[in-house]
Amino acid sequence: MRDLNIIREKKGFISDMDGVIYHGSTLLPGVKEFVAWLQKEKKQFLFLTNSSERSPLELRKKLQAMGLDIEESHFYTSALATAHFLKTQAPGCSAYIIGAHGLMNALYDAGITYNDVNPEYVVVGETTGYNYEMIIKATELIHKGAKLIGTNSDMTGPSDRGIIPACRALIAPIELATGKKAYFIGKPNPLMMRTGLKRLGVHSEDAVMIGDRMDTDVIGGVESGMETVLVLTGVSSRENIKRFSYQPHYILNGIGDLVPKK
C-alpha cells in the first residue's frame, strides 16, 4: 500500500456521493470526520454525482437531513455538466427533455428551452416519470434530426429499493429504435472531470478522485490525470476490481480512512 500522506497533502478532493458519502438516505461511517478534516485543512472539495435528478440545493437538503451541512457550491451533477456542454456547443438551443427537475432546472438556467416539436437535442436523464410515450416522442424527434444526449452512462444505480435502472438503461430503447448512439456527458467523460477541476481551481496533479465504481469514478480520475481512491462502501469489492486493466492508486474500506489518526 502506498503512503496515504501523499493523498492527504493534495489540494483538491473530488468525491462521488452514492456509495461513498451515503447509501440511499443513510450517511456512511467516517463521512462527518472526513468533511471536518477537509474544512480544517482548508482543502478545496467537490461532490460529483452522475445522478441528474437533484439540484445542488436539493443535495444540500438531503445531506442536512442526515446531519451534514455543506454549501451548494460544493456539489456538481451530471445535469449541470450536460447544461454546460449544450450551452458551449449551441448557445440558446432547445431540447426535448426526459428527466427529473434537477435536469430541467439546470438546462433552463443555461438558457436551453424545452421543445417537443423541433428541438436540436433530445436529452435523457433519470426520472421515475419515464414512459412509452416519451420513447415514441424521442424516436420521432431524432428521426427528424435531433441529436441524442445522455446525462450519464450508468446502466444501473443504487437506491433504497436496491439496484435500479439508470440513464443508460432508459436511453437504450431510444438508441435501438433510431439506430443512433447517445453521447454521454457524466463520469467518466473527461469533460465533466475537467470542469470539476476548474471549479475547484486546482490542477489534476494536485487533486484526487474518490469513488466506489471502477467504470466511472476510477477510470474518470485516471484519464484526467488524478490520483484515485476506491472505497469499498459501494458497488466494488477487492475481487471484482481485478478484472479491470486499470487499477486505483489506493483501495480503502471507507472514506473515513483518509482522515489521519490522532
TrEMBL record:
GO molecular function term, any single one: metal ion binding
Catalytic site positions: 16, 18
GO cellular component, one term: cytoplasm
Cofactor: how and how many bound: Divalent metal ions. Mg(2+) is the most effective.
Protein's recorded name: Acid sugar phosphatase
Annotated TM spans: none
This enzyme's EC code(s): 3.1.3.-
Entry similarity comment: Belongs to the HAD-like hydrolase superfamily. NagD family.
Residue positions binding substrate: 187
Keyword Metal-binding: yes
Function: Catalyzes the dephosphorylation of 2-6 carbon acid sugars in vitro.
Organism from which the protein derives: Acidaminococcus fermentans
Gene3D superfamilies: HAD superfamily/HAD-like
Annotated keywords: Magnesium, Metal-binding
UniProt xrefs under PANTHER family: 4-NITROPHENYLPHOSPHATASE-RELATED, HALOACID DEHALOGENASE-LIKE HYDROLASE DOMAIN-CONTAINING PROTEIN 2
InterPro entries: HAD-like_sf, HAD-SF_hydro_IIA, HAD_sf
Enzyme class of the recorded protein, top EC level: hydrolase
Cofactor(s) needed: Mg(2+)
Source superkingdom: Bacteria
Binding site for Mg(2+): 16, 18, 212
Pfam name, any one: Hydrolase_6
Entry annotated with the keyword Cell membrane: no
